[in-house]
């Protein structure tokens, strides 16, 4: 059978570890000895762990802002690129390139540019007499700084939106223009409904990425992971630390399963609501 | 007169569009420009407040100095090896699986395909811990095997999806004709479909390369010996070590970014259409 590579992979590298995570979450396990059954102890410890709640809060914060902002940014950039001007391909290249810069390199650039004392951003802000925050060094601004970094790299969804925009039949706009629909009405009544399946797709992917937000925070606050204070402790960073530094595999498995449950609930709500705002041309 | 003013209006709106696009380009392009500029400055010049915009003199020496201070070539070699092996894995397994999901009819095919795609929604961390324990038991932790093995088992679902989309555009009559001539499925896959799918395979290979160049979390979990570090972990190390020497850090970022940007310039079409297929499900 042709699909057997995936089928083996699915059972061995997905189904088995998925159920093993659930099992481990009810045990005390360090990866070497045998797993000892402890019932719900990990979960009750988890709910009394303030750092767990902090990391959950930080992840939620990031998601709540990053998700709509990046969607708007990607859509906005795609709409700009969809305008009828010469040299569109060049603009598209410039808009897209930030998203292929290696993640660690883009972290380096942002830490440098947003350095409170010597970075170019604050240099510009100060000379414009705008209050200059401490960005990655401030407990208040650290998350917004990470969000900015995320917004810089929206090239991927942007390209997908652009492809979607280009597949909308021109006649729809021509008819609407004849009916006297303005630019805003055309955007609301044609563009957004026609794009809605693609918006759903991108939002889902973005959501998965937000729940597992890790690399940028880990790299940027490398010397003081989670810092300043606990302002950039993200959920899976805490999970990672518990698992691979303290070898508390039972505890971290409980975190992993809890993450799965939360994301499953959010996805379910999203899919349920999608029937109200996603328009599928074939049904209409 | 009317024609004249219409032309004027077009000219004005064209200029307005270009200026918006230009401003956005400057904002999005600036971090990369600043990266390159900083990499050519002396440390004193880089830290100067108010900022010195252009490097003077231009210190090309930062590059050889940085490259010899850290084992940069080693990081690159490791990354290239990681990419080369997993590209083979992805190309072979994803094309086989995609073939099974598109060119052959069997009961439950579409259900299983949906299951495969939906595994994309499960957080990476929901299965990580038992996987780690498993690889550890097999003494595979420490080198790239835990990152390589899955690629041979169809772990790259985006690649499978993309190839399946492409395979479905090939008329079924092509296969039927070969079957009449007595070819079995594997021969059809190997001799007919695969050669036709070269553009799609090129996209898959390109994406896998970029993925490996970028991958941080995988190596972080499994590679613990510094001499096996890939580029991403090496860069992380550089950021942690040389924050007193920003020109070096930016030289490292530039060295890591340049190959991928050059690659993008030469393969832009493949790149963009590949993303569009993944996002919109049709050939963009």
Outline the structure in words.
The longest helix of chain A has 32 residues, at 50-81. Chain A has one domain (53-277): MetI-like fold. In chain A, β1 and β2 (36-37) form a beta hairpin. Chain A has 13 helices and two strands, in the order αββαααααααααααα. Chain A has helices at 4-24, 41-47, 50-81, 88-96, 103-113, 120-127, 142-152, 155-166, 170-178, 183-211, 215-220, 235-244, 249-277; strands spanning 27-28, 36-37. Chain A is mostly helical. In chain B, α1 (2-39) crosses α14 and α4 packs across α11. Chain B is flat, with a radius of gyration of 25 Å. Chain B has a domain at 70-241: MetI-like (MetI-like fold), CATH 1.10.3720.10. Chain B is mainly alpha-helical and 284 residues long. The mean pLDDT of chain B is 90. At the A-B interface, α1, α3, α4, α5 and α6 of A face α1, α4, α5, α6 and α7 of B.
Question: Quick gist of this model?
Answer:
The complex is a heterodimer of chains A (284) and B (284). Chain A has 284 residues and is mostly helical. Chain A has 13 helices and two strands; from the N terminus they run αββαααααααααααα.
Please render the helix and strand layout as text.
The complex is a heterodimer of chains A (284) and B (284).
Chain A: H1 4-24, E1 27-28, E2 36-37, H2 41-47, H3 50-81, H4 88-96, H5 103-113, H6 120-127, H7 142-152, H8 155-166, H9 170-178, H10 183-211, H11 215-220, H12 235-244, H13 249-277
Antiparallel strand pairs in A: 1-2
Helix pairs in contact in A: 1-13, 2-13, 3-7, 3-8, 3-10, 3-12, 8-10, 10-13, 12-13
Chain B: H1 2-39, H2 43-47, H3 62-69, H4 72-100, H5 109-118, H6 125-137, H7 145-152, H8 157-168, H9 172-180, H10 185-196, H11 198-214, H12 217-222, H13 231-241, H14 246-280
Helix pairs in contact in B: 1-14, 3-14, 4-7, 4-8, 4-11, 4-13, 8-11, 9-10, 11-14, 13-14
Using brief descriptors, characterize the structure shown.
heterodimer; A: 284 residues; mainly alpha; MetI-like fold; two-stranded antiparallel sheet; 13 helices; 2 strands; 1% strand; B: 284 residues; 14 helices; 75% helix
């Amino acid at each position: 059978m042709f699909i057997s590579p995936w089928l083996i992979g699915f059972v061995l590298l997905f189904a088995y570890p998925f159920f093993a995570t659930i099992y481990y979450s009810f045990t005390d396990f360090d990866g070497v000895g045998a797993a000892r059954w402890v019932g719900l102890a990990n979960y009750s410890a988890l709910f009394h762990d303030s750092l767990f709640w902090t990391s959950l809060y930080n992840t939620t914060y990031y998601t709540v802002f990053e998700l709509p902002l990046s969607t708007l940014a990607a859509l906005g950039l795609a709409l700009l690129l969809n305008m009828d001007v010469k040299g569109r391909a060049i603009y598209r290249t410039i808009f897209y390139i930030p998203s292929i810069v290696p993640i660690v390199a883009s972290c380096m650039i942002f830490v440098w540019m947003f350095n409170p004392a010597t970075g170019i951003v604050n240099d510009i802000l100060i000379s414009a007499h705008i209050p200059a925050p401490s960005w990655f060094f401030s407990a208040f601004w650290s998350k917004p700084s990470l969000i900015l970094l995320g917004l810089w790299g929206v090239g991927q969804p942007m390209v997908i939106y652009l492809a979607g925009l280009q597949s909308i039949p021109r006649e729809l706009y021509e008819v609407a223009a004849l009916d006297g629909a303005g630019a805003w009405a055309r955007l609301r009544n044609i563009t957004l409904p026609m794009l809605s399946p693609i918006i759903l797709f991108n939002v889902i992917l973005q959501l998965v990425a937000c729940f597992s937000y890790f690399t940028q925070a880990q790299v940027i606050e490398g010397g003081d992971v989670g810092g300043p204070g606990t302002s950039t402790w993200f959920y899976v960073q805490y999970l990672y630390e518990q698992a691979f530094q303290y070898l508390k595999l039972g505890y971290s498995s409980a975190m992993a399963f809890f993450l799965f449950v939360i994301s499953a609930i959010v996805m379910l709500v999203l899919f349920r609501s999608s029937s109200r705002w996603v328009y599928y041309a074939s049904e209409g | 007169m009317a024609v004249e003013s219409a032309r004027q209006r077009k000219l004005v709106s064209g200029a307005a569009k270009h200026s918006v696009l230009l401003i956005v380009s400057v904002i999005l392009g600036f971090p990369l420009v600043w990266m390159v500029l900083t990499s050519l400055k002396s440390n004193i010049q880089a830290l100067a407040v108010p900022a010195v915009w252009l490097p003077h003199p231009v210190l090309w020496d930062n590059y050889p100095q940085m490259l010899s201070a850290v084992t940069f070539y080693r990081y690159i070699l490791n990354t290239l090896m990681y990419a080369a092996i997993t590209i083979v894995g992805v190309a072979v397994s994803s094309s086989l699986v995609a073939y099974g999901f598109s060119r052959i009819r069997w009961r439950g095919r579409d259900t299983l395909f949906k299951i495969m795609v939906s595994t994309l929604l499960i957080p990476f961390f929901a299965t990580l811990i038992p996987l780690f324990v498993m690889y550890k038991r097999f003494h595979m932790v420490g080198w790239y095997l835990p990152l390589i093995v899955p690629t041979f088992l169809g772990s790259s679902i985006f690649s499978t999806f993309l190839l399946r989309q492409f395979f479905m555009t090939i008329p079924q009559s092509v296969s039927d004709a070969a079957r009449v001539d007595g070819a079995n499925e594997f021969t059809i896959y190997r001799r007919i479909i695969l050669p036709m799918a070269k553009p799609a395979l090129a996209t898959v290979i390109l994406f896998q390369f970029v993925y490996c160049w970028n991958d941080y979390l995988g190596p972080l979990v499994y590679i613990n010996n510094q001499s096996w570090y890939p580029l991403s972990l090496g860069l992380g190390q550089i950021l942690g070590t040389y924050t007193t020497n920003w020109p070096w850090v930016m030289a490292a970022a530039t060295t890591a970014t340049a190959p991928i940007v050059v690659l993008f310039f030469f393969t832009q079409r493949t790149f963009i259409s590949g993303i569009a297929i993944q996002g919109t499900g049709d050939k963009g």
